[in-house]
Amino acid sequence: MTEGKKSNRATRLILFTTFCATFLVLSVKVFAAWTTRSLSLMAESLHTLLTTFSALLGLLTMTAQNLPTGESVYSHGKRETFLTFVLAAFLSIAGLKLLEAAHEQWKLAIEGESLIFPVRVSLPLIQLLGILVATSLGLLLLCMWGARVLRSHILRSNALQQLKDAGLTVLVVVGLVGVWWDLVWLDVSLAVVLVLLTAGNFWQMVNWQLPLLVQQTAIAPEMLAKIACKVRGVNHCYQIQSRGIVGRFVYIQMHLVLHPEFAEAIADIAEQIEEDIQMHYGPIQVTFYIEKLPFDKKLQAMQ
Question: What is the CB neighbour count within 10 angstroms for residue 230?
Fold first, then answer.
């Protein structure tokens, strides 16, 4: 199995684990928010939904566009674009409803009247949210480890989403402790802040994913082959694909044929090629499929 296939499989496994765990966290948060009638926790659940969607989008990116050989360069199709529009519509409607409810709650809190949705805070709720924060931090460490070892930009993005979600959950816990101390306005205020932060984070995610929505070839294959073949040890480069926007981010896939004596230097060769391409075209991520030149063909080439 090639290094590229191993890396892709490991990345998919981490993304699948992250998606399942984050979806479980989302389900628990929604149930807790509905039970306690906390607007801030419900608003934070929208951000967790965004984090879950980010993991799903990354997973679909790795699997949806496979070629018949099982190899692909990352990109989004119509399904991913449709799901993004559905999420945008849902977040818009849910966000407006939460802002409307927060406005009504705020008016009643200012006037000193009983709230329509009184928040029921308890110690078990705080403990439960603490467990959810620990889960998010565990997923953060997993994605950070995968991003460093596998050099995956997708996992790095998911790690950032997990970090934001864990931080916002801590903020909600602090707010609910304040509500426990009769500061009822904290829940309403945090709900408004969290809805706005979720909207901003959604735009950032879509903006980061934009290069994947571009389907045309980003960089001419012959230019990438020329750069790769200049690296010592590379005999041939073929089946080159690229998607994205030059200067923003580009995903590249290429097959390399190496001389047998450079078999132990595969990692150094791949790193050198990636650095040379990045010097010319900016931020990139490259998946390499490595093949070794048979010894008899090497002798024919030398003759």
Answer: 11
